[in-house]
Specification:
220 residues, mainly beta, eleven-stranded antiparallel sheet, two-stranded antiparallel ribbon, 3 helices, globular
Length: 220
């Protein structure tokens, strides 16, 4: 099920990564207070989040990043940008006020979701498909209650599939962070994908620039 997602990501990422200024808006917002989320999740997040509004005035999402994203020694893994992030670690929580389309164009219902880091495995189903392996998988906060829990790839994708009610995970595509000196920053690439770039705090006390597609899908 993840094979097609990776192929779609490859199509996007093989195109030169040029970004342009976005007319969309990002601004601070208050604390995350969704009643469906556990205290474990709420307490792990920064007190302030970000609200992203599209140029036409549509409210796209609110997002709160984790105070300290779990990291370990960075590994040299082909095709992966963020190998210092612990597999399946919660990176952030995102709330969609309206239904949302993920990177594959799958319909995600309005609501709040954890974003967990996923590095697709190099098993027989995935090896050699793509040199780019970093994604964020969405799971409803009512399902993902323990922020410190870790999951194998199969269990994580099954949990994320509950975002859609089917067998496929809901995903956002991570990209190589560029231009993180402006923090946070919205930009668009040549596929008109809206990209959020910013620095997040890690458990090692360092800043980690990350970037991912917050709006847009790969045409297929």
């Amino acid at each position: 099920m993840f094979r097609r997602l990776v192929l779609l990501a490859l199509v996007s990422l093989l195109i030169p990564f040029s970004t342009f200024a976005s007319s969309d808006k990002i601004e601070p917002t208050g604390a995350f207070t969704d009643a469906a989320a556990s205290d474990s999740v709420k307490k792990s997040l920064e007190e302030k989040g970000y609200k992203i509004t599209l140029a036409d005035g549509t409210s796209l999402c609110e997002i709160w990043f984790r105070k300290a994203i779990p990291v370990a020694t960075k590994k040299d893994i082909s095709g992966a940008f963020y190998t210092e992030i612990v597999d399946s670690a919660v990176i952030a929580v995102i709330n969609f006020p309206k239904n949302y389309s993920d990177f594959r164009g799958q319909d995600v219902k309005a609501g709040a979701y954890t974003l967990r880091y996923a590095l697709h495995p190099t098993d027989g189903n995935h090896m050699g498909i793509s040199p780019y392996r970093d994604f964020l998988l969405l799971t409803p906060v009512a399902v993902d209650q323990n922020v410190d829990a870790t999951y194998g790839f199969t269990d994580l994708t099954k949990m994320s599939a509950k975002s859609l009610g089917g067998n496929h995970p809901a995903a956002m595509s991570l990209l190589l962070a560029e231009g993180a000196e402006v923090n946070p920053k919205l930009s668009e690439n040549e596929q008109a994908h809206l990209i959020l770039t910013l620095k997040v705090k890690t458990s090692a006390g360092s800043d980690l620039p990350i970037a991912f597609v917050v709006n847009g899908k790969v045409e297929h």
